[in-house]
């Protein structure tokens, strides 16, 4: 039986789950239990799901017979395997904005020689990048698609691009940032990966908990320096003409118009385009993501979830022109998974 945070994830906790859809999809794809389990395992490896999933026929059987509910990792793997949405597999109902399908923009010219299913998968994933305000979301989509193509033809004559991907812990921002980096070749700078050793050493030197991310000690002694390290690394890249994707919550920064204006001015002086993407998510999905990644820095959040969520505003939006990716119930991450899987098959 699958376990999340020490609790059995049974079908009783998901009364609306239509488990029969998994069996129907497996039958439609002509897969045996053993084959489906092996494919799920391979997809988990390709998507680098963490912690790794142990795909096998027993796991698939327990999901199909409603003996256990697939945690978010398995949901992602099943959606990628069957090229289906979460609601098509019965994991959840559609959100209001998903009731109507937006018209696909012509990101890929019809005369493009590379116009197969993998291109359509990437375009579908990029449709999750929606404009908030007056920003040109079509322009950003074109830039990402163009960068992806140019990886195979060499060179990018356009101005470098700095993309800030922000969101609360567990919102799916890292998955989105990694996806953009994966298809464009632009380096992704993750705040935690870049600064964690220094932050932990600094907190320890001050007699604090190295995994603290909420007390005045962290907020006053480490937090701003952490973001300064991230931004200085980004400036080194863009000054060298290297487009870069930044992966961090950016809650304080995106709430400060003056900070954002200074960043915009600096990018303009470097001849760099700036885009901000906010990843929207719901409390339950964030908790599932945080639980699964089992990071030491999240221990306080999970132990004090009610107190922690008092500081989460699901309606928060950056105080500047920006894009929004709606990852409530993991929808956007599911689509990026399918795109990465299609690309992996194309270029394997």
Describe the protein's architecture and organization.
By secondary structure, the protein is α/β, with parallel strands linked by helices. About 50% of the residues lie in helices and about 10% in strands. The chain contains 16 helices and eight strands. It has helices at about 20-30, 35-45, 55-65, 70-80, 115-125, 135-150, 175-185, 190-205, 215-220, 225-240, 250-255, 255-270, 285-295, 300-305, 305-310, 330-345, and strands at about 5, 5-10, 130, 160-165, 190, 245, 275-280, 320-325. The protein has a six-stranded mixed beta sheet with strand order 3-8-7-4-6-5, sandwiched between helices. A two-stranded antiparallel sheet has the order 1-2. A hairpin with a 2-residue loop joins strand 1 (about 5) and strand 2 (about 5-10). Helix 2 (about 35-45) packs across helix 4 (about 70-80) and helix 8 packs antiparallel against helix 10. The protein starts with a strand and ends with a helix.
Secondary-structure blueprint:
Layout: E1 3-4, E2 7-8, H1 20-28, H2 33-46, H3 57-64, H4 72-82, H5 117-126, E3 129-132, H6 137-150, E4 161-166, H7 173-184, E5 188-190, H8 191-205, H9 216-221, H10 223-239, E6 244-247, H11 251-254, H12 257-270, E7 273-280, H13 283-293, H14 299-303, H15 305-309, E8 322-326, H16 331-346
Parallel strand pairs: 4-6, 4-7, 5-6, 7-8
Antiparallel strand pairs: 1-2, 3-8
Helix pairs in contact: 2-3, 2-4, 4-16, 5-16, 7-16, 8-10
